[in-house]
Design a protein that fits this description.
Rossmann fold, 5-stranded mixed beta sheet, 430 residues, binds adenosine monophosphate, 37% helix, alpha+beta, BirA Bifunctional Protein, domain 2
Length: 430
């Protein structure tokens, strides 16, 4: 029989690696709470048109990478519907913002999410078909200050603080402004003009995109097309005064709080909904897939989805990649040893051993429980692999309440009264 394996591009996460995952998630929750973000959990699948309308039909994500299927109607009252496993979470958050009329509060909504996303990409280290993102969005009516460059700078400063708190150093932040909806038509016209003569030598995707959505030509990864892309007009040269002033204010606020950045005029990011500020944090330690996180402003997204005017800014970071960074920094995480291994010396002590384990665990200690069918030698071998000390529980110990405890590191063996055991283990006196 062929053994079944996890599907290509997906993987199981096992301990001790999952400890690192939990650490990253806990750090995000802790840091984001200081900025008053609340958690949102949206469904893992959505109506396909949500992504087509927001991320954009011509993006790689929508045109090549989505897991989409026709969901058959189960009752006459239902219609069959095209559904898609979410390839990203911003569209779902903005859909929820509109659906729950969150703009009626008149306040900025600060929402974060942690969850799996799905893209049919070519799997490699740091790139998977099911991957995890931690992301956040700041969205609201303009009257709540949602367009302010201070929001952009605050989000970027939060990300810098998060990475520092996680112990990830050596990252770089690249920034750009891709202009507002007012700037975009002038830039697209210039891009079309410049592409006219060049596009026949470019790849098939670029030839199509030059017609349908020229901005997406800038995402092309085909090496032969890069020299041509280098010669194309830069969006920075097509910003109007308001967009320039917005970007300058973001940079000034970052300078004021000491967050270092570089400006990359080619950073457009592969999603259609971005306006004005776009950004990416990269890290050299990640190899080819060097983007730790990316994001930007999306002032028109809510309206693209039929909602009210609700400018916003957000980001998504790759949890898989953050964990890869931490693993590289600390080497394989050694699984921490338990505080005690309890060894019942015969099966007659099994129940009493479970009771003792319960007592210690209730006191917050990490405890492994052996089995009375093990010979003493095996108990010591197992205990040595799993815990700092072994606690022997035989007939004598059970009767007298005086336990035999041996510390593996020092080799020291002691008698400890049961009532003193928690205290002794906590103080590591044994
Ligand atoms: P994006 O949603 O494309 O802006 O990506 C934001 C971040 O998600 C990236 O910077 C990566 O860290 C992470 N990411 C995107 N795609 C993948 C993938 N296929 N596998 C792992 N991480 C990914």
């Amino acid at each position: 029989m062929t053994l079944l394996k996890a599907v290509r591009g997906t993987r199981d996460l096992l301990p001790p690696e999952t400890e690192l995952w939990n650490r990253v998630e806990a750090t995000a929750r802790r840091v984001f709470a200081r900025y008053h973000f609340g958690e949102i959990r949206t469904p893992i699948f959505e109506d396909t048109s949500l992504f087509a309308r927001s991320v954009g039909e011509e993006t790689d994500i929508v045109s090549k990478e989505m897991y989409t299927w026709e969901d058959r109607a189960r009752a006459q009252s239902e219609k069959s519907q095209s559904l898609t496993l979410r390839p990203e979470n911003t569209a779902g958050v903005v859909r929820a913002y509109i659906e729950h009329k969150l703009d009626a509060t008149g306040l900025l909504q600060k929402l974060f999410y942690i969850g799996p996303q799905f893209r049919r990409e070519r799997p490699q280290k740091g790139r998977y078909r099911q991957f995890w993102q931690i992301g956040a969005e700041v969205i609201g009516p303009p009257s709540a200050g949602s367009e302010s460059p201070l929001r952009d700078a605050e989000v970027l400063e939060m990300l810098a603080s998060f990475l520092n708190e996680l112990g990830i150093t050596g990252w770089s932040l690249a920034l750009n402004s891709v202009g507002s909806s007012a700037d975009r038509p002038r830039y697209i016209a210039a891009l079309r003009e410049a592409l006219k003569d060049k596009v026949p030598q470019m790849c098939a995707d670029c030839q199509r995109r030059a017609e349908t959505n020229p901005l997406r030509v800038l995402d092309c990864k085909v090496p032969e097309d890069q020299p041509v892309i280098e010669t194309l007009p830069r969006i920075a040269d097509y910003l109007d005064d308001a967009s320039k002033a917005h970007f300058a204010a973001v940079l000034a606020a970052l300078d004021a709080c000491g967050v270092a950045y570089t400006i990359n005029p080619r950073l457009v990011r592969g999603l259609d909904y971005y306006t004005r500020t776009t950004f990416e944090f990269t890290h050299g330690g990640l190899g080819a897939q060097n983007a730790l996180l990316g994001g930007g402003r999306y002032d028109g997204l809510s309206e693209m989805l039929g909602g009210p005017k609700a400018p916003g800014i957000g980001f998504a970071m790759g949890l898989d990649r953050l964990v890869l960074m931490l693993q590289a920094a600390q080497g394989e995480a050694a699984s921490a040893l338990s505080d005690a291994y309890i060894a019942p010396l015969s099966e007659a002590q099994n129940a009493a051993a479970l009771e003792l384990a319960r007592e210690l665990r209730r006191a917050g200690l990490r405890v492994e429980l052996g089995d009375g069918s093990f010979r003493l030698k095996k108990s010591f071998e197992m205990g040595n692999k799993l815990a700092r000390v072994i606690v022997l529980l035989g007939e004598d110990e059970q009767r007298s309440g005086i336990l035999t405890v041996k510390d593996f590191a020092s080799g020291e063996q002691k008698k400890v009264a049961r009532a003193e055991l928690v205290k002794a283990l906590r103080k590591q006196e044994i």
